[in-house]
Write a structure and sequence with these properties.
The structure holds two protein chains of two kinds. By secondary structure, chain A is mainly alpha-helical. In chain A, 91% of the residues lie in helices and 0% in strands. In chain B, helix 2 packs across helix 5 and helix 3 packs across helix 7. The chains are: A mainly alpha, B mainly alpha.
Chain lengths: 75, 227
């Protein structure tokens, strides 16, 4: 990691090592934030998916119970 | 077929993203004046393009819904708008982080930034509106109108840097100053758009699955009411 960092520091034009490192850290934050937003969205989608499936299951059971009651009543 | 497309897209997106990230971080030299932070452009710009493509798709789907009253178009518009919002948020945040280094502030009330924020809020309003209306056809009609109205902001975002004096850099791909970017950077910008578009497609597939579940749920609710 260190040789790569020192190589990058040599490449940097008019930056002090501190400025360069800070600049690089912000690049890291930028990339991290972009993917965290998308990952957060994926998390939200999965949570909503689970909620919808639970709701579907609950409704299916409720309908089955009601149908049983109806058919029981008719007999 | 759909599952196969999703699997192929996932692998392709992962491979391209990993390869591109290595190229962007290790092979591409720093920009002379901005330093390493310049590399954020390879994500910031394609994410904005992806958001615009999503909002355009939502516009078309909304028009088609109003013309045909087919709820499948409404479901697609809702799904693609949310994907656009996610990419829009990523674009705004990466821009803010770049701005902190280059301008010394996370936010300036610049026409490009402000119009993008307004657009994002308009589409967020669209999502909130959908939650507020229970009846599916009424929800679809109202949200189609809002989606068409919200799209009016997209050309403003796009051309704001040419119409007004802004802090935001001038266009890097089109316009009179578009030639400033060297061909390698230009190529990388487009090449990195491919995996980002693929990620957008995958998110859309995930979100569309929910729309199918919601339709099933609506049908069951109607059945439950009828009993």
């Amino acid at each position: 990691m260190m040789p790569m960092l020192s190589l990058l520091l040599q490449v940097a034009g008019g930056f002090t090592p501190d400025q360069y490192a800070r600049n690089f850290v912000f690049l890291f934050y930028g990339l991290l934030t972009a993917w965290l937003v998308l990952l957060g969205f994926v998390g939200l989608l999965f949570a909503r998916d689970r909620k919808l499936r639970r709701e579907l299951e609950r409704l299916r059971l409720m309908l089955e119970d009601q149908e049983k009651e109806h058919s029981g009543g008719r007999q | 077929m759909r599952d196969k497309a999703v699997a192929v897209s996932s692998w392709l997106a992962a491979l391209l993203l990993a390869g591109n990230l290595a190229l962007i971080l290790l092979v591409f030299p720093d920009e002379q004046e901005q330093g390493p932070i310049f590399r954020i452009i390879f994500f910031h710009v394609p994410m904005a393009w992806t958001a615009f493509v999503a909002f355009f798709a939502a516009l078309i789907a909304s028009i088609l819904y109003l013309a045909s009253k087919n709820l499948r178009y409404d479901a697609f518009a809702a799904a693609v708008t949310e994907v656009g919002l996610a990419f829009g948020a990523a674009n705004l945040l990466t821009g803010m982080i770049w701005g902190r280094v280059i301008w010394g502030a996370f936010w300036v009330w610049d026409p490009r930034l402000t119009s993008m924020l307004v657009g994002w809020l308009l589409y967020a309003g669209y999502v909130m509106l959908r939650r507020a209306i229970e009846e599916p056809t009424e929800r679809a009609r109202m949200s189609a109108v809002v989606s068409i109205f919200a799209f009016a902001d997209v050309p403003i975002i796009f051309f704001s840097i040419q119409w007004w004096r802004t802090h935001h850099p001038q266009p890097v791909v089109w316009g009179s100053s578009g030639g400033h970017m060297s061909p390698e950077y230009w190529f990388m910008l487009f090449f990195n758009w491919i995996p980002i578009l693929l990620v957008g497609y995958l998110l859309l597939e995930l979100r569309m699955r929910q729309e199918r579940l919601s339709r099933e749920l609506d049908a069951l609710r109607r059945e439950a009411h009828a009993l």
